Structure formats: C-alpha cells, structure tokens
Automatic annotation (TrEMBL):
The family this protein is said to belong to: Belongs to the citrate synthase family.
Record EC number: 2.3.3.16
Classification of source organism: Bacteria, Pseudomonadati, Pseudomonadota, Betaproteobacteria, Burkholderiales
Record's keyword annotation contains Lyase: yes
Gene3D superfamilies (alphabetical): Citrate Synthase, domain 1, Cytochrome P450-Terp, domain 2
CDD domains, alphabetized: CCL_ACL-C
Source superkingdom: Bacteria
Region named Disordered: 254-280
Gene Ontology molecular function terms on file: citryl-CoA lyase activity
Enzyme class: transferase
Keywords tagged on the record: Lyase, Transferase
UniProt pathway annotation: Carbohydrate metabolism; tricarboxylic acid cycle; isocitrate from oxaloacetate: step 1/2
Protein name according to UniProt: citrate synthase (unknown stereospecificity)
GTP-binding keyword on record: no
Amino acid sequence: MTTQHDDRVDQASRWWSTDIIDIHPGEISIRGHAIQDLIGRISFPEMIWLMLRGELPGKAQAALLEAALVSSVDHGPHAPSIAISRMAISCGVDLNGAMGSAVNVLGDIHGGAGQQCMEIYRDSQARAARGEPQPVQAALDAYRAEHGKIVPGFGHRFHPRDPRAKRLLALVDEAVAQGVVSGEFARIGRQVEAILEQEKGRHIPMNIDGVTAVIYAELGFEPELGRGIFILSRSVGILAHAWEQMREGRRIKGPMPPSIPYAYTGPQHAELPEQPSQQS
C-alpha cells in the first residue's frame, strides 16, 4: 500500500514537471538561478531569453532583442487589438479582461505576419542548405502557392516606408559587424525585398514584421516564439490604451462615433408571407 501511495504521489508531482522554475518555502529558482541573484542584475529582455531559452544571452544579444520589443509596442487605436481593448474598457471590463480580449485577436492576420515571415526565412535557409537553386525565390513561391499572394513582412497599408524598419536593420547590421549575429536572415530578408520589387515593378519595403522576423531569426528563436514575443511587446500598448480609456470614463464606446452610420445592405421592406387560415 505504501509503495502504491508513493508511486501516485510521484506521478502527481511529475504531472506538471518543468525545467523552468523550482520553488520551495523561502526559495525561488529560475533555470537554476536564485531569483534574488537575478533581481537588479539582469534586464527584462534577458529574463525573457532565460525563460524561453534556458540560458542567459550576451549583452549585445539582449540589446537587439530589446530593440525589437520596443519597436512593436503600439500602432495606434486603429489597430484592431488596441481598439478592442478600449471598447472592452468602455463596456465595464477590467484591465485584465480588456487585455485578454485584445490579445485573443492577435491571430494569423492581425499579429501573425512576423511568425509567417520567419517561416519563409527559415524555409529559404533550409533550401539553401540543401543546395537548391534560388532558394529564396523557391521559398516565396511555395508560401504563396499555399497561402495566397500576400507576402507577410513586406509593404504596409499605412506607411510608404515603415520608419521602424530602417532603424532596426541598421542595428542588425551593427550586430553583424560585431559578430553578434550571422547576418544570414538579414540577407534573406533583403533578397525577398529585391524579388518583390522585380516582380511588382515597384519597391515594396520590409515592414516592422519583416524586420523583427529578421531579428528573432538571427537570435535563434523559433517562428512560434516570434509571435509570442511580439504579443509580449504589443501587450504594453494594449495596457496603456486600456488604462487611458479607463481614465477617460466614457461608457460603451463602439467602433465608430454615433454620427457615422454603418451601411445596411440587406433587403428593404420585407414582408411575411400570408399565413393560411386556421381550420377549427
């Protein structure tokens, strides 16, 4: 009986086994580091890296990660996730509910472009390693054959040139010169840009998703983590807008001002068919 009991206790303790954190009364250890040794000594980007990768990054790696995090925090209340956070607050939802509502819409279309772009870059890298001719073109063609003509990470509906991309690419180039990253994914990103310009006959510049995809790939993160890290960054903007809306105090703020009507496209003056008389 004792042996069976011990086996069940052992099974229960391993149900949520983790390499990330170890907690005992008066002790907290993250990836083997006592929390008191980390506090005040590492930055938040370094903590993100430690949690996700199991090791501490170099200072230059952490600085590049931090630059990407800073660049993506917000893109205004016209961004659906930000607008949703503000509307949720105006409906009486608390900050946590507003943030959850906003984060939940960061899917493949609004929020997924960075991950998708990283997948193109990784596919290009894999094709090149196999010795395929024109690996970047082949990866682009394969992505568009499966997902349609839109190439994530390039062009922008609002910015002719994304002001964030130039600065981040310059930081990547500096990191390459310092030997911090290889520059392989920066080269792939620029090749995608060149191919699109040749195909379209006009320049379609890399946007924030394309350049942060470069950074996350250069730093060795998997594409799924690229989206997760973006969500960490954008959550700061979501929180800021939700808090601003909470202080404004306006109730039930919809997607448009009441003075702007929506467009009704349904039938006019529909009538019910005549009902047959009831027989007694």
